Amino acid sequence: MPTAKIRGAEINYEVLGSKGPWMALNPGGRRGLDAVQVLAERMAKAGYRVLIHDRRNTGLSDVSIEGKESEYEVWADDLHDLLKQQGATEAVIGGSSSGCRTSILFYLRHPEATTALLLWRVTGGAFAANRLAENYYGQYIAAAKQGGMKAVCETEHWKERCDAKPSNRDKLMKMDVTRFIDQMEHWRKFFLAGAELPVIGATEKDLGSIKVPTIIMPGNDQTHGFATGRTAHKLIPGSEIYMLFDTELNEPLGPHEVWDEKADEMASVFADFLKRKVRAPAAAH
Known about the structure:
Blueprint: E1 3-6, E2 9-16, E3 22-26, H1 37-45, E4 49-53, H2 71-85, E5 91-96, H3 98-109, E6 114-120, H4 126-154, H5 156-164, H6 166-174, H7 177-192, H8 204-208, E7 214-217, H9 226-235, E8 240-241, H10 257-261, H11 263-277
Parallel strand pairs: 3-4, 3-5, 5-6, 6-7, 7-8
Antiparallel strand pairs: 1-2, 2-4
Helix pairs in contact: 1-11, 2-3, 4-6, 4-7, 5-6
């Protein structure tokens, strides 16, 4: 797969489809691009050029533990620059969970580059904020305090990053442990601050400012509940909502595989929505 140098980090990416309007799809959690591969293939067949990528600190991309903003704002700006490198000045932006946050922040920071938003598994509420803040940051802060950067590199996520790209291990091992802890604490504070927001990473005012066509598919577990998706729909002017599931799971996180099983339905709904709501840009030929 190709790579691009984006704001100091080497980013692994793939473009599916050779013509049509641009689209970028973002995976949830700290998953790599393979987590949205199935849906991206379906959207490429529907006539879009679909960019998927490993965000920094995921997949085969560089580890980079720095940034004054929240981590999802860093990811949003990376995606903007990556799209520009492809010659995509406008794109449909979509994502799941942390990719959904990235997509919303992409619009808020780069509205002129956003033609529509496809949001699924929207995250919100104190339970989600506290659970994910621990998963994304707290456990690594604890590891660093207990065993330094060697212990960080032995945690499941960072070990995978080091095994996938050995230079990542060198970067982590050379990093001052206090600096690592401070950055993780910084990112965790952003996340915890979202506990009282309608959607983690976006205020009611932020959501009310969205002016591009937006469709929401609520998640179906305690981290991505029906209520959060419905709240986003209520607050984003003119947005549409599509309930992909009839029942909500009484568990923190439902299996990711069930979403891949729904890829055909998701692609059909998204393609129909975009056909109805979005003009094809002149550069889409």
